[in-house]
Amino acid sequence: MKRRGYISVLLVLLPAILFGQARLRKPEMYVGVHGGVIASTVLFNPTISGMTPITNACILGGTGGFVFRYSEQKCCAVQVELNYMQRGWAEHVAATESSSAVAYSRTLHYLELPFLMHIYFGSPSWRGFVNVGPQIGYCIHDNGGSGEKSTTQVHQYMSIDNPFDWGVAGGLGFYCRTKNAGLYQFEARFSYSFGTVFSGKATDYFKQSNPMNLSINLAWMWEIKPKGKR
After folding, report:
1. Which of 221, 191, 217 is closest to 77 using CA atoms?
2. Which parts of 123-193 are beta strand (E)?
3. What is the C-alpha to C-alpha distance for residues 156 and 133, in angstroms, rounded to an integer?
4. Which of 3, 10, 134, 209 has the fewest Cβ atoms surrounding its Cβ within 10 A?
5. Do residues 61 and 69 lie in contact, with contact meaning Cβ atoms separated by under 8 Å?
6. pLDDT tens for residues 86-105?
7. Mean pLDDT across the stretch 159-164?
8. pTM (2 d.p.)
9. CA-CA distance, 220 to 184, in Å (whole number)?
10. Among 99, 15, 79, 91, which Cα is nearest to 49's?
11. Do the Cβ atoms of 58 and 37 come closer than 8 Å?
12. 85: helix, coil or strand?
């Protein structure tokens, strides 16, 4: 709980610090689309043997959505997104002399709304950047899992308890601004959910079931300029 409190305070103070910087001569506003691939898993406690090591616990899915970015400062902007994401986890049990290999995966489809501080640096044409901020999401579909279950216990195979998700995200990347063809961007982003997939009450089996994701995205954005400014 203390860690969540520290992160919340930091996310509140960061915009105030950054927006005290020098202003641009005229604001910059961009809209666009982005898409990519996401590797995701869920951190369970108690752990699930078929999900160790973590490379065997990840599934690959797709992600995409819309981006809005607005800046009045020389080093930072506000970025809001509306994304669709395929998240979940996998279980792999290697074959033994008495049993065959087992593979199971479960995909959860989310709508996600990140609110990010976009910190950039570099020249007007080429810029590196850092994105950081909170995000919320909602599970709109659960495929129920596919493959062979790795254990007779049913805890992780039950319907999810919490479709609502919340957490933090951080990304690194760069982009190129062209004169007439818009802005092209590459970003690697990591996100961690404080919300749990299954209920974490004292009487429940799982005390922790937090999603964790790593995505690679490409974006195409274009600038919105007031009339007479083109």
Report:
1. 221
2. 126-142, 146-147, 164-177, 183-193
3. 29
4. 3
5. no
6. 999 999 877 666 666 778 99
7. 95
8. 0.84
9. 5
10. 91
11. no
12. strand
